[in-house]
Amino acid sequence: MTNALKIETFPYFFAIAKIRNPASINWKSPFVFVGKTDDELSLVALESEVPSDAYPVDRGYRMMRVAGTLDMSLTGILARISKVLADEEIPIFAVSTYNTDYILVKSHTFKNAVQALSRAGYLVTNEIS
Hints:
It is a single chain. The chain is α+β, with helices and mostly antiparallel strands. About 15% of the residues lie in helices and about 35% in strands. Strands 1, 2, 3, 4, 5, 6, 7 and 8 form an eight-stranded mixed sheet that branches. The two termini are about 25 Å apart.
C-alpha cells in the first residue's frame, strides 16, 4: 500500500493534562491544544509548558502530524493512521486543527509507531515543514 501522505515527527516531549485556570496557559508556546467542555478543560502542551497547578498530568508523549493542509472534505485519514497503530497495539491521543491532524503516542512506543506507519506506506520524516 502506498500512501501519498507525509507524516512529520517532532523531537519534543508533550504532556496531556487537566487544568483549572485558563490564565495559566502559555499561549506563546509553539504547541498549545486546549479542549473545553461543560465539565473539563484539557491541555496538550510541551512538558515544560504544563502549568504547575495542572492535575492530573500524563507526561512522556511524542507527536507526529500529517504534513500540509488537509482539505476538509477528505475522509478517513485519521482512521487509517489510527488503524495502523491499533493493529500494533499502540494507543494514540489525536488532536485535529483546521489544517491537519496530530497524533500523540507514548515515547516508549514512538519507534514502533514510526516503523508501523513506514511499513504501511507513509513517508515518516523528522523534517518539519
